[in-house]
Input
Amino acid sequence: MGSWRTYKAGEVLLREGERADSVHLLIDGCVKVVSEPPKGRAALLAVRGGGSLIGELAALNGDVRSATVVACSRSPVWTREISVERFNAVLAEDGAAMSVVATAVTGKFRSATRRRVDMAQPLARRLARVLVELVEEHGTALKPGVYVIAVHLTQVELGSLIGMAESTVFRLFQKWRRHGVLEPSAPHEVQR
Output
């Protein structure tokens, strides 16, 4: 279903506030989901990788997009772009497809709930958890215990994802570097 689309890092797939005319099935690469309030700093809401459905909420309820989706992997992002009409027709005709979409949407809401619950955790634990999640979902092992995260994220974005100031992220990164947890010379380290 749908048409092949490719995006380079920094290119926008979907824009917050626009009417939904399509849904993307992310085939390869990573995207970041951000909210861009009229006043204030953009907030990173999630990072999605291959196999994720992007833009389905607005397609399902007919409302405007609730976030902007931007390609953020070091390699091109590949998607299948499916029209809202075709997407909804398939879901109406195919109970198994509807079940898969419902499971995906439920997983996203569970993840958002877990992030909210994590806000009560110590700062270092919150940052460590998000880094582990990024390694599990988007990491590549260079050697045992050493991973590269193939996602372009700034410390500001990491902080916004978990409700933490950039200065705190920076301070924790510095501490972890001193203890050998992060390697500052890693070629694909999370960038400041």
